[in-house]
Amino acid sequence: MRKKSKYNVAVVGATGAVGQQMIHLLEKRNFPIDRLKLLASSRSKGKVVPFKGHDVVIEEATPESFDDIDFALFSAGGKTSKYLAPYVAQSGAIVIDNSNAFRMDPNVPLVVPEVNPEEIFKHQGIIANPNCSTIQMVMALKPLYDHFGIERIIVSTYQAVSGAGNQAIQELKQQSKQVLNGEEVSKAILPVGSLPIKKQIAFNAIPQIDVFEENGFTLEEMKMVRETKKIFGDSSIKVTATCVRIPVVYGHSESVYVELKQSYDLKQVIELLKSASGVVVIDDPLQQEYPLAIDAAGKLEVFVGRIRRDLDHPNALNMWVVSDNLLKGAAWNAVQIAEEIIKNAK
Amino acid sequence: MRKKSKYNVAVVGATGAVGQQMIHLLEKRNFPIDRLKLLASSRSKGKVVPFKGHDVVIEEATPESFDDIDFALFSAGGKTSKYLAPYVAQSGAIVIDNSNAFRMDPNVPLVVPEVNPEEIFKHQGIIANPNCSTIQMVMALKPLYDHFGIERIIVSTYQAVSGAGNQAIQELKQQSKQVLNGEEVSKAILPVGSLPIKKQIAFNAIPQIDVFEENGFTLEEMKMVRETKKIFGDSSIKVTATCVRIPVVYGHSESVYVELKQSYDLKQVIELLKSASGVVVIDDPLQQEYPLAIDAAGKLEVFVGRIRRDLDHPNALNMWVVSDNLLKGAAWNAVQIAEEIIKNAK
Question: Active site annotated at which positions (chains A, B) (predicted)?
């Protein structure tokens, strides 16, 4: 990208849970914006969003929306990305796409800036943001991968409803009230918006995020498997995932078992994690200090705690990894990629 | 035990979350009771509990409370059990203890009737009920252990607040209302009643149940490790656990990775689980059928689903195990043990 003092930025999916955080971060980070274009479906056309003291009117996203745009941050679902992103890339803008549409495309870099920043510059117009549950896990694994190598990962997730969008947040709140008031519970969104069968999330744990694949794993689980291998550029890493939605609004938590390729010293592991960019270690069992979803909400970092030697495998350890799924898990990772491109623009 | 037509039963901890379920089950199962004695701390003395159309007045539990008692079901915490159970056992009654006080005592059988019923009859007056999170896991593992052998287990739990008692249930409900109303959240009980630092459970996930041990694991996690080995009578089984409290009222869920000692056929595994006593398989991904905590609440069985081949280890599989922690995880397992003793009385 050619260096400029300011860039034209489009946010596609501007009314969504992630889109709102993208706009918030562009403002908070003082991103060098010339013109901000907020795009959404025709339903949201005409709505007004404040940005740096001005009102920005939301426009309908069409193939013609992207003239003069430098960065297009997409978070409007896979279908929209698949349809629009190729037009945008052709027009010369860089698409940073938060959907699942291009993540496994061999011509599309899948990037976490702290983990594989070199991939950014191999793009052909589209860069994919990994899945939220993958991003925070690979952030915690990166220093271990670099120093010891990783043989195997077994992860179980505790995922917030905001990962399923604003409607899912409202559903959790409404259902919670209904349960507390002894009323009948209404179900319309979770576990998967596009599927007919709905489940109660309030005061429950749903072991389904996204659709099932033939192997009995969900797409969300397979995203963690496939994306981890792609991000590390290492298909030999073994990954097994169980992805579970729990009644939390913001912040995914993960119970991660990691088998390293060699023996390790626990203190060294903790030091490596402490010095990893974007990672914060909160780990003092005697003071009952460990990461919590409610504490991670609104923060940009990935929080790691409960770091402990496995009881059985000499090369393995267990840890608890928490991050705001809408921020580092989505909007912040996307904005970071754009900032990285600007930093390297000539 | 000598066969009688009816037995004198004491419930110690009669006002607690588990004690209430014990009383409920004794009534519902039509347990052959001559006299029911309800015991609790001095605080609850004089309270009245209905049982089969009569009122039973709660008495204070003392060493003298157990004359003529045949079965004493304890669920009043480890301290009460440690203090009173030896007196009770001496008086000739059989103590079935739901606390952690005697579980690892080599002279005390640790029993899940479907898993190791033969241990019941080795008792010397005290039989221990395993921890709730252990019971449901070993129920799902038993048929696999018998047919294939088990090399290793890695489990992450999603545990309901009722496991921490009635006050924790109230705390979750109160905190949920406070969050929904935008009020300040009051914290008094969780994660561990006896520890000074409290954490919010509403809309959160707390990776601490019970106190920490020196190895960085919590006591709850080590209970799963130690009790599983004792129940199967096999110290070679490798177990790693991460125990997490989530905002669910009734029903623990568990993400269980199991490495068998030999290769297996997935259909055979499902058939074995389907024919296991006390186990119900709910597993149809395409119909979005899998066990859920809110569905397991109030039921006696252990529900297993999401049964799938591990992607990496040829002998491993993953599953989702759910059960009502107050019932099979506590009160029902205890009542079952008593029923088993009666069935075999001569």
Answer: 132, 252
Task: Single out the residue of B291, B213, B224, B191 nearest to residue B251, CA to CA.
Answer: B291
Asked whether residue B2 carries a pLDDT value surpassing 90, the answer given is no
Tens-digit pLDDT profile for residues A10-31: 999 999 999 999 999 999 999 9
Is the Cβ pair A205, B248 closer than 8 Å?
A: yes
Same domain as B117, residue B265: no
A164 and A90 in one domain? Answer: no
**CB nearest to A247's CB, from B203, B292, B316:** B203
Spacing of C-alpha B140 from chain mean position: 14
Neighbour tally for A287: CB within 10 Å = 10
pLDDT reported for residue B106? 98
Quote the domain boundaries for residue B244.
134-325
* Closest alpha carbon to B154 in B240, B232, B217, B216: B240
What are the φ and ψ backbone dihedral angles of A254, each rounded to 5 degrees?
Answer: -140, 130
Q: Are A173 and B180 in contact (CB under 8 A)?
A: yes
Whether A199 and B309 lie within 8 Å, measured CB to CB: no
What CATH code is carried by the domain that includes residue B277? Answer: 3.30.360.10
For helices A17-28 and A332-343, angle between their N-to-C axes, nearest 10 degrees: 40
Q: Which of residues 184-223 of B touch A (CB under 8 A)?
A: 191-192, 195, 197, 199-200, 203-208, 212, 215-217
- Give me the active site residues of A, please: 132, 252
> Do B119 and B188 lie in a common domain?
no
Mean pLDDT of B204-220: 98
Task: Please check whether residue A18 is in contact with residue A250, taking contact to mean a CB–CB distance below 8 angstroms.
Answer: no
Residue type, A99: S
Residue B1 pLDDT: 81
Nearest to A173 among B180, B255, B306 (CB): B180
Chain B residues with CB-CB distance to A203 below 8 A: 172, 247-249, 293-294
Q: DSSP letters of B290-309?
A: ---HHHHTT-SSEEEEEEEE
Q: Do B191 and B239 sit in the same domain of this protein?
A: yes
Query: Quick one: which of A261, A226, A260, A251 has its CA closest to A240?
Result: A226
Contact status, residue A261 vs residue A315, Cβ threshold 8 Å: yes
pLDDT digits (tens, 9 = 90+) for B146-173: 999 999 999 999 999 999 999 999 999 9
Which helix (DSSP H) or strand (DSSP E) does residue A270 occupy? helix A266-274
Non-local CB neighbours of B58 within 8 Å, separated by 6+ positions: B14, B15, B38, B39, B40, B44, B45, B46, B47, B48, B49
Q: Assess if residue B1 is contained within a domain.
A: no
Is B105 found in the same domain as B212?
Answer: no
Reported ipTM: 0.97
Q: H or E stretch including A281? A: strand A279-281
A281 by Cβ neighbours in 10 Å (0-12 / 13-18 / 19+) ranks as buried
Do residues A300 and A335 both lie within one domain? Answer: no
